[in-house]
Design a protein that fits this description.
The complex is a heterodimer of chains A (about 260) and B (about 350). Chain A is α/β, with parallel strands linked by helices and about 260 residues long. Chain A is built from ten helices and twelve strands. Chain B has one domain: ABC transporter involved in vitamin B12 uptake, BtuC (Orthogonal Bundle). Classes of the chains: A alpha/beta (about 260), B mainly alpha (about 350).
C-alpha cells in the first residue's frame, strides 16, 4: 500500500509549479509535507489524487500508474480528506460518513446494511458515535475533521491523504486529530499530510518532506529535517529550533525573541 | 439503518398512498363528476374484468378520455418538474436552481409559439416544443464549452443568455402573430395549462419522461456525493464531470417533455424540492422519490383547483405562481432550508 511520485512536473500554463519531484511513501508510514504558502504543495496533492492530470511523470499507487485508474479504482486505494468541507445542503453526520462507501457500490446502487455497519464501525473507531444523527453544518471545525476521518475509514482505502487537516482547528482539536492519524498509521494506514506546523510534524510523523519552489528541499526523518538551518531556508525567516524532553519535541521560535529577553536559552 | 431512515421510508410510503387517494378523488371533482363507485367500475372494466355496465357511456367517456389523461399528465408533469429541479439543485450545488435554468422552458416556449404561428395542430405543438427545448439546452452546452473559467458557472450563464435570446424570439413571434386567434393561443400556451390534455399527449411524452426519471432515481445516491464538490466526489470514486453531464441530460429530458405538454408551469421545480428537504432532509435517497411524489401530488391538486375554479379554467401556471412566490419569499427569509436533527 505505497504511493510513489516519479519525476513529476507540473505547470499552470507557462508558469512551472512543480519540478521533477520524486518520493515514495511506504505502507504504514506517516509523512508530512512542509513548505511555505504557494510552493505547490496543494498542486502536488491534487496530482497525486488524480484531480489534476496535466502533469508529466508518474504517480504510482501500489506500483500501478494512477493515470490508468478510474475514479472508483483509485478511491478504493486512496482516501482524501479536504482542508474543509462545506456541503451546499444539510446532511447528517451519518449521511456524510456513508458517502465513503460509494466506491464499493455498484453503479446504480445505494448503500445497504453492510455499508451502514461499516459507517457505524468508523464512527465508533474515531470516537464520535454520538454525533451520528447531528447535522454536519452545526458541528465545530474539529468535529467536522473527525467526521471526515471517519468517512475516509468507511472508504476502506489503505492510503489517507490529508490537506492541512489541522488548519482552522483550536489547539486541543489539532492534537486530537493528529493522535487519531498517528493511531491509524500504527495500524498500517499509509498517511500523507500537508501542514504548516513543523513542530507537530516533528512529533507525529515518521518523515518530513520540505518543499520549496516546486522542488523537494529536504526529505528525511524529523530529526534530520527540523533544524535551524533547514527551517530558516525553508521559510526564509530567522528562527531558532529548540529541543525539549530529550529531543522528543522541538519548537521553532523567532530568533529575535532571544535578543529581547536578554538571552535565556 | 437508522431511525431517521425508517421515518423517511414511512413518509414516502405515506406519500404513495396520498397520491393514489388524490388520483381517485380527482375524478370526482369537475363539471361531470364521476362518483367513486362508477369510477372503479369503469377502471375495472377497462382492465378487462367482466362487469356489467351500471354507468352511462357519457360518464365513461368523461372519465376515460378526458379526465384520466389530464390527471395522469398533471401527476407526470409535476413529478418531472420537481425531480428535475431537485437534480439541478444537486449538480449545480445551488439551492436556487430550477428546471428551466438551462433554457429548457424558453426553448419549449419558442418552439410552441413557432408551431402555433405556422398553424400546426396540437400534436405538432408538443413535438415542436419538445424538440426546441432539447435544442436550446444542447446549444447552451455547446456555448458553455467555450466559456473560460468555472465550468458550472459558464453553464449557468450560458443558460441565462440563451434563454433570454429565445424569449426575445418568442416575443417577436407574438408581435407578428395574428392578434385575432394565434396571439391568444400563444399567450395561453405560455401561461401553462393542462386543459385539452389527451392520450396522444400522454403517449408522446411518457417514454422520454421515463428515460429521464428512471436514471435520476438510480443515480440518486451519487447525486449526494456530487453535492460535496467535484474534488471530493472524485476522491470518493465518482467521475464528477461525467455524472453531471449524465444527470443534466436526464433532467433536461424530463423538463422538456413536461413543458412540451403543459406549457410554462413555474415554481414547481423550485418549491417542491425545498418543501421535501424540510420533510425528508437533503439525502437524495429520500429527496428524489419524495420530490417525484410531492411534485405529482401538488400539480394534480393545483390542476383540480384550476379546472374547477371557473368554467373556463384558470391556467395552472398562474396558480402555481400564486403558491410559489410566497413560498419563495419564506425561503429567502432564511427559514426554508433548515433541516435540524
Amino acid at each position: 500500500m505505497s504511493i510513489e511520485v516519479k519525476n513529476l512536473s507540473f505547470s499552470y500554463g507557462d508558469r512551472p509549479v512543480l519540478h521533477d519531484i520524486s518520493f515514495k511513501v511506504e505502507k504504514g508510514e506517516f509523512v508530512s509535507i512542509l513548505g511555505p504558502n504557494g510552493v505547490g504543495k496543494s498542486t502536488l496533492f491534487r496530482c497525486m489524487l488524480g484531480l489534476l492530470s496535466g502533469y508529466t511523470g508518474e504517480v504510482l499507487i501500489n506500483g500501478q500508474n494512477s493515470r490508468k485508474m478510474t475514479a472508483r479504482e483509485s478511491a478504493r486505494q486512496v482516501a482524501y480528506i479536504p482542508q474543509s468541507s462545506n456541503p451546499s445542503f444539510n446532511y447528517s453526520v451519518s449521511d456524510i460518513v456513508l458517502m465513503g462507501s460509494t466506491a464499493s457500490l455498484s453503479r446504480f446502487a445505494s448503500p445497504g446494511k453492510k455499508d451502514f455497519e461499516r459507517c457505524e464501525w468508523a464512527l465508533e473507531k474515531i470516537g464520535i458515535s454520538e454525533l451520528s444523527e447531528r447535522c454536519f453544518h452545526r458541528l465545530s471545525g474539529g468535529e467536522r475533521q473527525l467526521v471526515m476521518l471517519a468517512r475516509a475509514l468507511t472508504q476502506n482505502a489503505p492510503i489517507l491523504m490529508l490537506d492541512e487537516p489541522t488548519a482552522n482547528l483550536d489547539f486541543g482539536n489539532q492534537l486530537r486529530v493528529l493522535e487519531q492519524m498517528k493511531a491509524l498509521s500504527k495500524e498500517g494506514y499509509t498517511i500523507v499530510q500537508t501542514t504548516h506546523h513543523p513542530e507537530q510534524s516533528y512529533m507525529f510523523s515518521d518523515r518530513i518532506l520540505a518543499v520549496q519552489d516546486g522542488r523537494i528541499l529536504h526529505s528525511g526523518s524529523p530529526k534530520e529535517v527540523l533544524t535551524k538551518k533547514n527551517m530558516q531556508r525553508l521559510y526564509a525567516v530567522d528562527v531558532d529550533v529548540l529541543s525539549l524532553y530529550d529531543d522528543h519535541a522541538r519548537i521553532c521560535v523567532p530568533a529575535n525573541i532571544k535578543n529581547k529577553s536578554g538571552g535565556i536559552s | 439503518m437508522t431511525a431517521a431512515d425508517k421515518k423517511h421510508r414511512a413518509i414516502i410510503l405515506l406519500m404513495v398512498l396520498v397520491l393514489i387517494g388524490c388520483i381517485l378523488v380527482s375524478f370526482t371533482v369537475g363539471r361531470y363528476p364521476v362518483p367513486l363507485k362508477e369510477l372503479l367500475g369503469i377502471l375495472a372494466s377497462r382492465m378487462g374484468l367482466p362487469i356489467e355496465k351500471f354507468w352511462t357511456a357519457q360518464m365513461e367517456a368523461a372519465a376515460w378520455n378526458v379526465r384520466l389523461p389530464r390527471i395522469l399528465l398533471s401527476v407526470l408533469v409535476g413529478a418531472c418538474l420537481s425531480s428535475a429541479g431537485a437534480a439541478y439543485q444537486g449538480v449545480f450545488q445551488n439551492p436556487m436552481a430550477s428546471p428551466d435554468i438551462l433554457g429548457a422552458s424558453a426553448g419549449a416556449g419558442f418552439g410552441a409559439a413557432l408551431a402555433i404561428l405556422i398553424g400546426l395542430s396540437s400534436v405538432y405543438i408538443t413535438v415542436f416544443a419538445f424538440a426546441a427545448s432539447l435544442l436550446t439546452v444542447a446549444l447552451v452546452f455547446t456555448v458553455s464549452r467555450h466559456a473560460k473559467g468555472d465550468r458550472v458557472l459558464g453553464l449557468i450563464l450560458a443558460g441565462i443568455m440563451i434563454s433570454s435570446l429565445f424569449q426575445s424570439g418568442t416575443s417577436f413571434i407574438k408581435l407578428v402573430a395574428d392578434p385575432g386567434n394565434k396571439l391568444p393561443q400563444i399567450t395561453y400556451w405560455l401561461m401553462g395549462s393542462l386543459a385539452g390534455a389527451s392520450w396522444r399527449d400522454f403517449d408522446i411524452v411518457l417514454l422520454p419522461m421515463l428515460f429521464g426519471i428512471v436514471p435520476l432515481m438510480l443515480l440518486r445516491w451519487k447525486l449526494n456525493v456530487l453535492t460535496m464538490g467535484d474534488d471530493e466526489a472524485r476522491a470518493l470514486g465518482v467521475n464528477a464531470q461525467r455524472l453531471r453531464v449524465g444527470i443534466v441530460i436526464c433532467a433536461t429530458l424530463v423538463t422538456a417533455s413536461a413543458v412540451s405538454v403543459s406549457g410554462m408551469i413555474g415554481w414547481v421545480g423550485l418549491v417542491i424540492p425545498h418543501m421535501m428537504r424540510r420533510i425528508v432532509g437533503s439525502d437524495y435517497r429520500y429527496l428524489m422519490p419524495a420530490s417525484i411524489l410531492g411534485g405529482g401530488i401538488f400539480l394534480m391538486v393545483v390542476d383540480n383547483i384550476s379546472r374547477n375554479v371557473s368554467s373556463s379554467g384558470i391556467p395552472i401556471g398562474i396558480l402555481t405562481a400564486f403558491v410559489g412566490a410566497p413560498f419563495f419569499l419564506w425561503l429567502i427569509s432564511g427559514k426554508g432550508d433548515h433541516y435540524e436533527h
